[in-house]
Write a structure and sequence with these properties.
The structure is a single chain. By secondary structure, the chain is an alpha/beta fold. The chain has helices spanning about 5-15, 20-25, 40-50, 110-115, 145-165, 185-195, 215-220, 240-245, 265, 285-300, 310-315, and strands spanning about 30-35, 40, 55, 60-65, 75-80, 100, 105, 125, 130, 175, 200-205, 230, 255, 280, 305, 320-325, 330-340, 340-350, 355, 360, 365. It has 2 domains: about 35-320 and about 370-400, Alpha-Beta Horseshoe (Leucine-rich repeat, LRR (right-handed beta-alpha superhelix)); about 320-355, no CATH class. An 11-stranded parallel β-sheet has the order 1-3-5-6-8-10-11-12-13-14-15, covered by helices on one side. Strands 2-4 form a two-stranded parallel sheet. α4 runs parallel beside α5 (about 145-165) and α6 (about 185-195) packs parallel to α7 (about 215-220). It is globular.
Amino acid sequence: MLGFLNIEELLLCGQVSKRLRAIANDESLWLYNLYERKVPNDFIEKAAGNGCQYLSLAGCNILRFTGKSKTCFKLKYLNVSRVPKGVQKLVQNCSALQKLSVAGLTLDSDDIQYICQNSQTLQVLDLADCKFDLHKLKESQIGQTLQVLELEYCNFVTKLLQDLLTNCAHLTELNIRVHLKQELLDPSIQALVDNLTPTILKLNLGFQENLQDKHVKKLVKRCNNITHLDLKCTSITNDSVHIISQQLKTSLEKLNVSSNNVDFASLFQLKSMPALKTLICDEPVNDNEEEGIENLKQQLRHISINNKCQEDNLYYIASPFKRVKAIPTPIEMVDMFTNGTERQVTRPSPRAIDTIDKEWIWEIRANRQDLFAKVDDSDDSNDSNDSNDSNDSNDSNDSNDSDDSDGSDDSDDE
C-alpha cells in the first residue's frame, strides 16, 4: 500500500506510529528524483540514513551543504550532473555506487579519489562535458609561461585519468564526450586508451578532436568486447574503420563515425560484421555521395544507417536521462507579410521536435518530485557554494549549470 504514496506522504506516515515509521523507512520506498530543486542537506542525510539507494539531484541547489556526512550512504545510483560548485563532494560519502553521473562539472583530484572509493562496484560513469580543476597547482604557477602552464595542466589531467581508470576496473559504460573546447590532449587520450578496462562495453568519445587512428587502434585491441562506440567529431580516418572491422568484428552492435575523415567506400568493410545493427555516418551533400550511401544501404541490408533514434542512444551512453520524441503540440503565431498585408499563420514550435526525459535514474522510471522549491533562472551562478549557507535567506544561490548542454526543453517542468 505504501508503495503508492509519494515521498511527502511517506514522511507523514512515519509520524503516526513506530510500526508505520518502520514500514515507511523500507529502503525500497526511498527513491528520489529531485531535478532542479532547492534541497536541504538535512533531507539528503535523512534519506540516505533510511537506506535510499537511487538519488537524482541533477541541477539541484543543496542548501547548507556540509560535504562529509557522519554516516556512509548506501546509494547505488547517484546523479549529481550540472549542480553548483562543490556539490559533487557528496560522492565522498559513497562506497558502493554502481552508476554515477557528474556530467558538466569541474572535478579536482579529490573528486577523482572519491569516485575511486566506489571502484569495486562502479559499472557506469558519466563524465560528459567535465572539466578538471588545477587549483592545487596554483601556488606554483606564479611567473610561469603559458606554455609551461599548459604542460602542467596536461600532465595533471593525464595523471587523474590514469588514477581513475586504473582503479575503476569494472566499468562497462563510460561517457567522456566534450563540448566547448574542453577536449583532451594527446597524452591524456593516450592514458585513456592505455588504462581503460577491457571490460568496457559502451564508450562515448564524441567531440574528442585529438583522438586519432593510433588511439583507436590501441583501444580496440585492448578492449575488444565493445558493443557501442561513438567516435563522432574526432580526427579518425578510414584506417580506424578498417581496424574496427577487424578487432570488433563479433561484438560491435552500434557505431558512430560521423563528422570525420571517413568516406563511404571504407564503410563497405563493415559488411563482414554480423553483430553490427546500427551505423551513423555523414549525410550525403552531393549527387555522388547520395549514390554512395544508397549503395551502402543496399550492401549493408542488415544494418540501420543514419537512424536518428539510434544516434541518440549512442549519444546518451552512461547518461541517466533518455531522449524522447515529443509530440509537436505547441504551435506559435508567426507574423507574415503578403503583398504588404500583415497576417498571422501558425506553425509547429521548433522546440517541440524532441526533448530530454528527465524522469529516469538510468533504467529506473522515477517521476520528478516537487517537495521543494524549484531552482529558477534568476538564481546565482554555479560559483555559489551552499556549504557556507547558515540560514534559509541564502536559498537563492543556484547554478546556471542546471541548464542542459544538449539544448533540451525544460518547459515541461512540474
